TrEMBL record:
Transmembrane segments: none annotated. This is Glyoxalase family protein. It holds the Pfam family Glyoxalase. PROSITE patterns: VOC. Residues 7-132, 152-270 form the VOC domain. PANTHER family: RING-CLEAVING DIOXYGENASE MHQE-RELATED. The lineage of its organism: Bacteria, Pseudomonadati, Pseudomonadota, Alphaproteobacteria, Rhodobacterales. It comes from the Bacteria.
Amino acid sequence: MLTRINGLHHVTALASGAQENNDFFTKLLGLRRVKKTVNFDAPEVYHLYYGDELGTPGTVMTYFPFPNARRGRPGAGEVAVTAFAIPKGSRDWWADRLDSHGVTGIRKQEYLGEARLRFDGPDGDGFALVETGDDRPPWTGGDVDADHAIRGFHSTQMRLNDKGATAELLRFMGYMQQDSAGDITRFALENGNGAHVIDIETLPHAPMATQGAGSVHHVAFSVDNAEAQAEVRKALLDTGYQVTPVIDRDYFHAIYFRTPGGVLFEVATNDPGFDRDEDRAHLGEALKLPAQHAHLRDVLEREYLEPIRD
């Protein structure tokens, strides 16, 4: 069993427009945009990162906004719900705030003993806010005060046809079954980073999901550094998983592998962090390009990347 995984690092999804995506996370949910860069494999598309003040692992939601992208079709083999932690007693405040901004799919739930608020993102994304006693410091640079502000991720919920092999993988990664109710089985790390819960919803007859705007592309797990990542990579390879070589993503180093249920997993290092090329007071303000795409700046800004109004 692995012992080097801390919990979630980030969750990356697809969107249909950069401005709407930016406004939803910064102006409505009150997160900080900590990096404005581009997709390493498709530099004509932004890669936007939202999180706490510094983009601490376990707080960061990231997006590839493909202009006018078709919505994904929900189904099995995907992350269906990304949940954020909020303070106890703040669910009603959030319900009113989301409703006043025209958010759809708002519904209050009691879920595995937790007060939870489900809602849709701009592209039909599945989100939830979960009341917890989470003491991680929030970002309060927007108009959401500390009594209500998001603390970071609470969990992700995968929707699978069969949980067996993926549950075995999670146990190998250090997760233990914590609870279950109906179609939901919850796994958690004993000493995680606050974003250390994974739920599996088992729906044997659900069709496979089709990715598009509103779909989660991958979910990333945190390790402290390159040494821990190398240990995890070797263990996964020894177990039979096909794992990529280490890829430098400028702000972390990443490896990827496909889970038995079809969800793409990443293992990302906590270092060097989002302040490696920007002052902490100005994270996410300037367009930062990876070195291999720096020569494209003029054409990208002129022809492909829509200006984002903050």
